[in-house]
UniProtKB/TrEMBL annotation:
SUPFAM superfamilies: Tudor/PWWP/MBT
Pfam families per UniProt: OST-HTH (PF12872), TUDOR (PF00567)
One GO cellular component, as annotated: cytoplasm
GO biological process, one term: spermatogenesis
Domain (HTH OST-type): residue spans on this chain: 3-76
Segments of this protein annotated with the region Disordered: 111-142
InterPro entries: LOTUS-like (IPR041966), OST-HTH/LOTUS_dom (IPR025605), SNase_OB-fold_sf (IPR035437), Tudor (IPR002999), Tudor_domain_containing (IPR050621)
Protein name: Tudor domain-containing protein 7A
Species this chain originates from: Trichinella pseudospiralis
Entry's localization field: Cytoplasm
Domain of life: Eukaryota
Keywords: Cytoplasm, Differentiation, Repeat, Spermatogenesis
């Protein structure tokens, strides 16, 4: 992948967070906060950001609002249409632009004054100006925009009140050390005195505006657990039902045709198939998107349900081809890894006591999440994903976990 293609992919990913479009300043600011540098459009021979965006009409749209402000949008496509339906509008900070589209962007002519305005009207003089209307319609539009802004502000104020304490810089290990002192003493002196440094890796497969509250529902093993955003419960159910309608009458896949690293439609209708059972609240019998992790010797395969975080072991008769288009939809689960939890020891191995302690602490607490920073990186499967640095703090304020992807780097995360 060339540098230009990578830059376009980053810009497109950023614009997907602005469902109603981003101004030039918003796009530049958001891109820099995510990627850590400015959009290098000049290095590719473009004199402006608008010309850079206009060079890829297959990726972007350019619109103008009633104030002649240019708005950049990520162009909907067959691959991203499902994602557009799944993204929750309550987290978008551009909702005030929703009714501001009046005309397409038309570049100024070379003979005209380039500084006279950023947009030209895409209507002829014989046509009625679309900005003209009755005073009653204008008042209704203004009232609607004010109501939308008030609702958005109320949502943000609520989140800030809930998570204000999380944003304070505190000793992230102090709570764990204090809780460890209260645990029954074991024969391992290192465990009794010290819990080694750790870091969290949270893979966000969709965009959320900071701060974002979440809850840890379960943990599979000491090094991997999942966070589920509450606002996506209905979306998981709807996606599972849609896949079921498309895959239920299909033919099963032979085990030789199942490959690790590929996505399939997996049926799970019994608690014994699942190591957590969390996803089964959606429906007693359904198909879910499963990533093949391992092929077992007994004619079964291990799948990770990417929209729920859990793993299931099923036979090939419970596996169907995934319907077209669903393989590119961004996963709804948020995978979290504890990369270094454990005691400090010379051989750098985790003791069973330390692992069980962390499992119990994570399972018995619910956490609030504050997003601190976001980064972009490419996964092993070639999918370009945003990574986020977050703070997790338990609802009873007894435990805090702080990730730091800057110091630890992204190479190990992938």
């Amino acid at each position: 992948m060339s540098d230009l293609e990578l830059t376009h992919k980053k810009v497109y990913s950023v614009l997907k967070a602005f469902l109603n479009g981003a101004t030039e300043q918003e796009l530049k600011s958001e891109f820099k906060s995510f990627a850590g540098y400015d959009i290098p459009f000049e290095s590719y021979g473009f004199d402006s950001l608008t010309s850079f965006i206009a060079s890829s009409p297959n990726l972007y749209l350019i619109k103008c609002n009633i104030d002649d402000n240019v708005l950049y949008l990520a162009k909907p496509s067959e691959l991203s249409s499902s994602l557009d339906r799944l993204m929750s509008t309550q987290h978008n900070n551009d909702i005030y632009k929703k009714t501001d589209y009046w005309r397409d962007y038309v570049p100024t002519s070379k003979a005209g004054n380039a500084t006279s305005g950023s947009c030209e009207k895409a209507v002829t003089e014989s046509k009625t100006d679309p900005t003209e209307g009755s005073e009653q319609q204008q008042q209704q539009q203004q009232q609607q925009q004010q109501q939308q802004q008030q609702q958005l502000q109320q949502t943000l104020i609520l989140d800030n009140n809930v998570l204000a304490i999380v944003e304070q810089h505190a000793d992230v290990l102090s709570a764990l050390i204090e809780k460890n002192k209260e645990c029954p003493k074991s024969g391992d002196d290192d465990l009794n005195n010290y819990i080694g440094p750790y870091r969290l890796l949270i893979r966000f497969y969709t965009f959320f505006q900071s701060p974002f509250p979440g809850t840890i529902l379960h943990i599979e093993n000491p090094s991997l657990f999942s966070l589920f955003p509450n606002c996506f419960d209905y979306e998981r159910c709807r996606m599972a039902e849609t896949i079921f309608k498309a895959a239920a009458h299909g033919d099963p896949i032979f085990m030789n045709d199942i490959h690790c690293g590929k996505l399939y439609a997996v049926m799970c209708n019994d608690l014994s198939f699942c190591c957590c059972g969390v996803h089964l609240y959606t429906k007693a019998k359904n198909f879910y998107r499963g990533l093949c992790v391992e092929k077992l010797n007994n004619g079964q395969a291990l799948f990770r349900l990417i929209d729920y975080g859990c793993t299931v072991t099923v036979g090939s008769n419970f596996v169907r081809p995934l319907p077209s288009g669903f393989d590119s939809v961004i996963a709804l689960s948020i995978d979290c890894k504890l990369d270094g939890v454990g005691i400090f020891s010379n051989d750098e191995e985790w003791s069973d006591e330390a692992i069980n302690y962390m499992k119990t602490a994570l399972r018995n607490n619910s956490f609030n999440v504050t997003v601190k920073q976001q980064y972009f990186a490419e996964s092993d499967f070639g999918v370009f994903l945003p990574f986020m640095s977050v703070v997790l703090k338990s609802s009873d304020d007894t435990m805090e976990m702080n990730s730091d992807l800057v110091e630890n780097g992204l190479a190990a995360a992938l």
